[in-house]
């Protein structure tokens, strides 16, 4: 059984930083891509970033490129999302998800497994 567990959310002031972690079990890193998504109240879920755990190919949404960095520690089956220069509009529940192919996508419907989410709140 595949399980994804997010951690690292919290409350931070605008301009601050947080690092989210997504620890996976039940899958073989290298064969999957992990994506981060977020959903703010009243808004649709949107893709933030993804990483291929095989060759570390990454992709970012325009809204976070240059501020967020995704990385993976395959030995720990963990993917990180380092979020810097946070803005109030980054406030959302952040989810990680796994797709059972080596290359990710920003299309949330393509992902097979999801974590429970972690709240990120950025105050102005």
Keywords:
single chain, 124 residues, mainly beta, seven-stranded mixed β-sheet, four-stranded antiparallel β-sheet, 0% helix, 50% strand, globular
User: How much helix, percentage-wise, in residues?
Assistant: under 10%
Distance between the termini: 40 Å
| Cα radius of gyration in angstroms | 13 Å
Mean of pLDDT: 95
Sheet-strand content, in percent, reads over 45%
Quickly count the helices.
0
Cα shape: globular
Query: What does the largest sheet look like?
Result: 7 strands, mixed
Poorly predicted runs: none
Q: Please, what is the oligomeric state?
A: single chain
| Strand/helix succession | EEEEEEEEEEE
- The helix/strand class is mainly beta
- Count the strands? 11
Brief overview, please?
The chain is mainly β. It has strands at 3-7, 10-13, 18-25, 33-39, 46-52, 58-60, 68-73, 78-83, 92-99, 113-114, 118-123. Strands 2, 4, 5, 6, 9, 10 and 11 form a seven-stranded mixed sheet that branches. Strands 1-3-8-7 form a four-stranded antiparallel sheet, with no helix packed on it.
